Prior knowledge:
The structure holds two protein chains of two kinds.
Chain A: H1 4-7, E1 11-13, H2 20-31, H3 50-62, H4 66-74, E2 78-83, E3 86-93, E4 101-106, H5 117-124, E5 137-142, H6 160-173, E6 179-183, H7 186-197, E7 202-207, H8 215-223, H9 233-246, H10 250-257, H11 264-267, H12 269-277, H13 288-293, H14 306-319, H15 322-331, E8 346-350, H16 360-366, E9 370-375, H17 383-386, H18 388-399
Parallel strand pairs in A: 4-5, 4-6, 6-7, 7-8, 8-9
Antiparallel strand pairs in A: 1-2, 2-3, 3-5
Chain B: H1 4-7, E1 11-14, H2 20-31, H3 50-62, H4 67-74, E2 78-83, E3 86-93, E4 101-106, H5 117-124, E5 137-142, H6 160-173, E6 179-183, H7 186-197, E7 202-207, H8 215-223, H9 238-254, H10 256-263, H11 270-273, H12 275-283, H13 287-296, H14 307-319, H15 323-332, E8 347-351, H16 361-367, E9 371-376, H17 384-387, H18 389-400
Parallel strand pairs in B: 4-5, 4-6, 6-7, 7-8, 8-9
Antiparallel strand pairs in B: 1-2, 2-3, 3-5
Helix pairs in contact in B: 2-3, 5-18, 6-7, 10-15, 12-14
Amino acid sequence: MTNTVDTGVEIRPFHVDVADEALDDLRRRIASTNWPEQETVADESQGVPLAMIQKLASYWMTDYDWRTCEAMLNALPQFVTEIDGLDIHFIHVRSQHEDALPLVVNHGWPGSIIEQLKIIDRLTHPTAHGASAEDAFHVVIPSMPGYGFSGKPTSTGWGPERMGRAWAELMGRLGYDRYVAQGGDWGAFVVDQMGLQAPEGLLAIHTNMPATVPSDVDEASLAGQPPPPGLAADERRAYEQLIRTYKQVEYARMMAARPQTLYGIADSPVGLAAWLLDHNDADGQPAAAVVSALDRATSATGELTRDEVLDNITLYWLTNTGVSASRLYWEYKGGFFNAKGVSIPVAVTVFPGEQYQAPRSWAERAYPNLIYFNEVDRGGHFAAWEEPDLFSAEVRAAFTSQRTTNGGRHD
Amino acid sequence: MSSVVETAVEIRPFHVDVPEEELDDLRRRIASTRWPDKELVDDQSQGVQLATIQELVRYWGTEYDFRRLKARLDAWPQFITEIDGLDIHFIHARSPHQDALPLIITHGWPGSVVEMLNVVGPLTDPTAHGGSADDAFHLVVPSLPGYGFSAKPTATGWDPVHIADAWIELMRRLGYVQFVAQGGDWGAQITDVMGAKAPPELLGIHSNMPGTVPSDVAKALASNVLGAGDPPPSGLSADEQRAYDQLSFLYTKGIGYALEMALRPQTLYGLADSPVALAAWMLDHDAQSYEEIARSFEGDPVGSLTRDEVLDNITFTWVTNTGTSSARLYWENTLGFFDVKGVSVPAAVSVFPRELYQAPRSWTEQAYPKLIYFNEVDAGNHFAAWQEPELFTTEVRAAFRSLRTNGGPS
């Protein structure tokens, strides 16, 4: 289905094949975990509570089945292609609707392609999910460098800017000359960079973690100083959410300063699991949706389950990418949520549990070509993972206006 | 030697007892370490370098003598006593000179009483170490709550202020009616708090990591942590500007580990489960001490900070499983690391050249109104007692000399 011929660059099919010994070793390590004592508080304010991680570890060791995840991944068309000297792994699912809009979706940290699995069929096969054929996408989901089955960089330089260029190259290599891009967390940084780079063929981006903060508010929030005068109510709320967020992201500052020191996330499964679990959002730290998933065995409506949480953690473990993924924080030297100056068409969905709820006023200033803005009533930082139906509906609505130009691929 | 009778509070002798199975388990874990890939840079700017930690682990697993830690600790009288509901472990080495000055030395993170083992002899028995009998100390070296063989708090509240109270109680319980206190790192904060509380028995303090930063400078530094914020106050002298620049680097790039421990100590499960995780975390205190510790694994140690010393401290933390409990002190703390603490007793300060920042004399004089001693020495990093025991000993003797006219044992 790929057309490697005209680009002359090899795109190799990829299948996940984890050795039994790796899974045995993982179980052995979990079983022999040396635990610290319980935290000295009755809540999550000192970090991932002992009872929470012990319960997860117990399930991980006994009943969790990686092979189910592996089969799910291998049921999807996966490929590896070398871009800019690095092997990039990606899922590429073509819609049965030939004039579907090509879309590259970029995950974040502590995520992976596992975050996006539930949206693939919803986006490529909309008629099976209550949407129409005109909503169809061809979906490309790459693993970031250093993440999952992509190669681990052996030299510096793989920040969001370089990834943005790589994704443009990837879409071109797949024959897509008109496409859109979507991202949250690091994926949002990458799609913002793509928006700045505005490669030929990129019609628009959609972000669920928009960078909209005006410079005066950005400086005040970073410095922990009072907000500038004259903020509207929703702007004031966003400022306060930023202040809260900056007090919850010491894990990010550690990874930005000293990623290599985190040997425990390579050597200890529970060390890795706790580190990955403890990502905050507006609903808590760890994110409330992730905490509640740990008690959810199955979900009919797409809510996050403990197996999905462990699929993601186990992917990090089996690929030994805890440290290589952390290096992205070290690589990035730019601002967090400050407006970056993207001038191509941008669509924004504001999820209530995201780090901050971008006010429309800021979004309009940050993205002068704002084609879509919507505040939804549920979902947090891991929107695609937590609310796949709602997220998919947002992505469809976000890009409806871009379809008049009729994206497609050259063959 | 101690006066337990009059206080009626039990002080129990303590000896190190680490089961051989625990050491076997440690060796097994070391041997089965799973490594990440190498850092992408040729220096330490991404953290503890793979080659350094792999050499540490090789030596730890194959050549390091696990029994040396027990032998070194048991060479000194050790005790446990319950203070405020928590068992506190301490070394208590009385000087052969009866009128020695009682001194309590407090270690920091990622340290332990191991940091002080090389100064116990010189401080308590100066005539055997090139000093005079007039320089003798009766020495008390406690393990912080959650560190070493002290108990781990099971409830919140053991912050530096609480620990300072406990140390005052400990010295009273030992029968010392006049004493001095010394510290670096957390020990410096605790010692400063003792100096601010100023119990009548406390004659003076000595710090090798003084809290001297004026409030306007501290405010400017805090606002800059994430890269925005205030410029440094105007009118800083050259040494003040140097201190500002050192602290600014520290706050923005240098103490990610401390910030994470202050926010989410419990999340650091790797410290309990993985020897290499613990070792790397403990190696990475600050860039200067890291570089010198790394040299000890290249056969080129700086001062007394040898690979065996480094591994004594890490092994001590591993066998007591105190990686997480020691990290909680950061969570408990509410004081600014280098802020002025309001010390009112006589204070002595030694400035070591590779400490986190070089406290300017001007700031030090403001911070400690009764500054009895200030000296900038020419060697030593953050772990002054550990790395430069002779120099440290000389400083402590000089620091407290003026207080001996009325010092004395009970």
